[in-house]
Structures are given as C-alpha cells and as structure tokens.
C-alpha cells in the first residue's frame, strides 16, 4: 500500500477511536461554524442571483424575517404578498418570520421545534436545522438515482461517476471527500477537458481540493460553498455542508446532461431530416438517371439497322449480349437499390411519426416498374430481330454458296462432256483439246469465288446445306480430274501422231518408249526435265556422260522448246539409228551383268545408273529369286519382248 493510502487508512482508523465529551463538543462547534458559512453562502447564491445583497450572518440577517421572505419567494417562485420590509418592533419581525414559516409549511416542508421567536432571538442551531431542511427540500430532495432519492440517491450518483477512478472510494459525505480526488474525479468524468486527472499528484490533498473548487466555480458555475480547510484540515468534514456543496455538482452536471440531451435530441432530429433529405434527393436523382438510361437504350435499339452481313449481325448480337451481362445487371441492382432506399426513407419517417414521402410525378416506384416492363418488351423485340437477321443471313449464305458451287460444277461438266465428244483427224482433235485447255485457268480462278463463299459459311457456322451436295474440295478434285483428262488427251494425240510418223519403230518399241516417258514424267506436264530425261535413257540402257547429256538436252530445248514426247521419240530414233542397235544394247546389258544371263540390283548400282532408272528396270524386267532370296532380273527375255527377234 502506498504512503497516501496508508496515511488515509490510519486517519480513518483514528476516527473510530472513542471521542471524549470535549472533543465531541469541539467537533459540533466546528460543524456549526462550517454549516453557518456554507449555508450562508448557499442562501447568498439565491439572493445575489435575484439582485438582493448578500447576507453576512444568518443570526442577524434572518432575525427580522425580511431576508427569509425574500428567500421563500425566490425558492417558491411566487410572491408571499404584503409584508413589513423595514420592521422595527419585535411584533413586526414576528409577523414577517411567521409568514415565511407558514409558506414553508404550505409547501409540505415539515419544521420541527422552531418558531418565530427562535429565529428572532438567533437560535443558530435551530436556524441551521431549518436551512438544512430547506436545502433538502429545494436542492437534494429532487435527486434520484436508480430508485433512490435525496441523500442515498446523491451518494449512489457519486459512487457511479467515480467508480472508474481507483484512488477514489466514496462511502459517505465526510471523509471520502477529504483529499479532493473525488471532486476532481466528478469533474473529469463529465468534463475531461477541464482537468488532467492522470497527472494529478494524488498525495496533494490541499492542491487537489483547491483545484477542484477553482475549476468548479470558474467553469461550471458551482459556487465555492466550502473552504479547503473544511475538507482537508479536519478529521470529520461536515456531512451536511459536503452534501450541500456536492449537490451543486449533481445539478450542474444534470443540467449539462439535460442540455446535452436536448441538444442531442435536436441534433438527432436534424440529422434524421438531413438524412431523409439526402436520401430523397439521392432517390430522385438515381431514379431519374435510371429512367433516362432505359429510355435511351430503347431509342437506340429502335434506331439500329442491319447491313446484311454476318459479321455485322454478330456484332449486334455481341453488343446485345454485353448489355445483358453488364448494363442490364447494373440496372437490376440499381432498381433494387432505389426500392430499398425508398423503403428506408419511409421507415425513418414512419418511426418519427412524420408525413410519408411522395416522390415527384414520374419518379415513383410504379413509374420505375412501368419503364422496366417497357425495357423488357423492347429487349425481347431486339433479341428476336437479331436472331431473325442471323437466320436470314445464314440462309442467304447457303443459297449463295450453293448457286456458285452448282454453277461451277455445271461448267466443269460441260467441259468434260465436250472433251469426251472430240472426234476427227488427230490434228483437229489436238487443236480442240488445246482450246479447251486454254479455258481451264479462268475456270480454276473462278473456284476462288466459290471458296470465299464457303469461307463465309464456315465463319457463320453454317455446317449443313440442303441446296448443294458439293464442297470446294469436291470441285477442286473434279477440276484436277478434268485437267488430267486434257493432259492425257493431248498426250494421246501426240503419241498417235508420232506413232503414225515413226515408221522405223515397231509398235512394241513405241509402247515401251511411251511407258518410259510416262513413268519419268512425274508432274504429268508431257515434258521431261534434264534429270528425268537422263533417268529415262538410262532405264533403256542408254548412258551418257554429264557433259554429253548437257549438250543433248540443250539441243532438244533449242529444237523443240521442251523435251516433249515427240522430242524424246526422235532422240531415241536418232540414238538407235546412229549409236545403238539391239545387238549393242544386249551387249551393254551383258557388260553390266558380267556375262551373266541376268543382272542384279547391285550390278545396276555398280554401273552408276540413276536411282530412277534402276527403279524403272526393276519394275519392267522379268525377275526370279535366287537361293539367298535376292531378285535376279532377266534382261535377255525383256529385250526379246522389246525388240523383234530378227537381227538380234
């Protein structure tokens, strides 16, 4: 326990020791002195507040009854009628005092053992008792705290207010107030701005008491009825004096709380009305904006038009879908929010019994619902229009592609039929076929238009088409077939013309040379490039050095413009006439075979024949399998089949 609390405990313990009669009499005398000063100051506060001069002595100033009547008129807030304001005789003073006492009694205040003569004669003890009764009646009796009144109520109020302060323990109206901390706690509890309780020196009893008196008088309007010594320099502060002074705190703070309550009530009502006003304005602004936005959206939809393309229709659909996922959802939320806001305004008004809010014309919730229904109707019409446009565009794309594809196939079929029906002399047939061939590039180019139409269908997710059975791939395949037919037709005419003119070649030779040419014409262009020509000759057993082959190829290019079948046949005729007889060709194969009656794939590779020539010979020469499973090619038999036996 700290020194302060130790001293206070010791002091309190001393009070419990038996007191001598002399000590008791001394304490009673001191209490009367304190009460006289305190009660006189208390009465003076009433007098001075109403323009009367203060009293200096209760015994002297109350003896003629004038001041007592003035006090009763002030406390009772009424006039006591005519009385002698300057009494000289005892009877006059008695009348005045008696009038005041009768008024006190009429107000329900019970006075005991006191009459006019006691006041006139200056019986201080009875006068103090009367004044204490007045203080109880007009200052303390109206104090109430949790069902307790007067002294008990005031004590409970003090205990409740000072409970958070650990150094304060209010148990009475005497010793509990001797260190000034209880007074400081009351001030700090209600007005923490006036005193820093935590920084108080809790051991400075006189300083704390003096500080509380000063602040209470200067800032709270509580007159200093007591002296510091009345609390700090006595072992038993006077209970009635302390109660009288502390009651001033109760009334000051109660008045403050009542003022604050009234202010809070007005403030709360003002805040309510301001909140309602803000909410009403917010409601009207938001409803007005919501109605404007919905109306504007309906107008925009009504003004929109389609350009007839799928991309445009999809853009309309995407924009409409975005509206449903963003704008409309925000409007749904806003519609719910303004409905809630309207309900909140009405609830606030109804709670305080105020007149309900009626929105301006056109801004009611029913107006919002009506506008919303119009929006939903316009939305449904917009959705139907977009879907109908997309369906129509898809149908148009189907018909467009079908018309182009069917027309292309018809033109291709006419060309094919025209090609099949060609007859007459070979030269005329060649001329007709080449004329048809000149028309093919334009027809092939027109396939791009069909492909573009198919791409449009694909982009529009058009998978089925009941107006045609053709696809671009089908038509491209048929174009390739017709082109091949033209190429083969031209090749056939050329072969027939060459065969007709080549009287020095047997039909078997012509057939063999033609098959060789066709095999090495990989791109079916009816021409051979140099490597293809080299391989073709090698497959026939005709091998030249690279330099000689370059010369032969260049000469053919100069004479014919390309190594056509005709150029190839003429080259073979020249070679066979000038260089290679059947016997020479047979001798060449024997040399490659090493005088064996057959050749192997290894023999052909060792002879450095091109791979394409080896592959050709492997396909055309008769073969058999030896003991180890390797093929042996019978060149003798093949040459017998190719050339006539005479002359070999």
Automatic annotation (TrEMBL):
Residue ranges occupied by any Calponin-homology (CH) domain in the UniProt entry: 33-139, 148-254
Signal peptide: none
Keywords linked to the UniProt accession: Actin-binding, Calcium, Coiled coil, Repeat
EF-hand domain location: 508-543
A Pfam short name: CH
SUPFAM superfamilies, A to Z: Calponin-homology domain, CH-domain (SSF47576), EF-hand (SSF47473), Spectrin repeat (SSF46966)
Family: Belongs to the alpha-actinin family.
PANTHER family reported for this sequence: SPECTRIN/FILAMIN RELATED CYTOSKELETAL PROTEIN
The protein's name: Actinin-like protein
Species whose genome carries this gene: Trametes cubensis
